[in-house]
């Protein structure tokens, strides 16, 4: 029984050693993804702010053009 436990322990250690680089690589990949998603989230916030400003400017232009259109219509 003890021999079997030691064998299993040895097998487990071997698996850990064999996969150590994979574990480190996966950890690095997850860290990079986290940073990339944070950057993307910041860029999306900036985009949303810019889109709101564009929408506001568009509404102002539409109102100005509408007023001018009404004035031209009255002259016709």
From TrEMBL:
GO terms, biological process: endocytic recycling; Golgi organization; Golgi vesicle transport; lipid transport; lysosomal transport; protein transport; retrograde transport, endosome to Golgi
Listed GO CC annotations: cytosol; EARP complex; GARP complex; membrane
Keywords: Endosome, Golgi apparatus, Lipid transport, Protein transport, Transport
Main location: Golgi
Source superkingdom: Eukaryota
Annotated compartments: Golgi apparatus, trans-Golgi network; Recycling endosome
Classification via InterPro entries: Vps51
Description of how the protein assembles with itself and partners: Component of the Golgi-associated retrograde protein (GARP) complex. Component of the endosome-associated retrograde protein (EARP) complex.
Annotated family: Belongs to the VPS51 family.
Its biological purpose: Involved in retrograde transport from early and late endosomes to the late Golgi. The GARP complex is required for the maintenance of protein retrieval from endosomes to the TGN, acid hydrolase sorting, lysosome function, endosomal cholesterol traffic and autophagy. Acts as component of the EARP complex that is involved in endocytic recycling.
Protein's recorded name: Vacuolar protein sorting-associated protein 51 homolog
Organism whose genome encodes this protein: Scyliorhinus torazame
């Amino acid at each position: 029984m003890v021999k079997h436990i030691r064998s299993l322990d040895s097998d487990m250690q071997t698996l850990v050693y064999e996969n150590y680089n994979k574990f480190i690589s996966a950890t690095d990949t997850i860290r990079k993804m986290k940073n990339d998603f944070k950057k993307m989230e910041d860029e999306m916030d900036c985009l949303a702010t810019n889109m709101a400003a564009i929408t506001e400017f568009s509404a102002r232009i539409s109102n100005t053009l509408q007023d001018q259109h009404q004035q031209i219509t009255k002259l016709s």
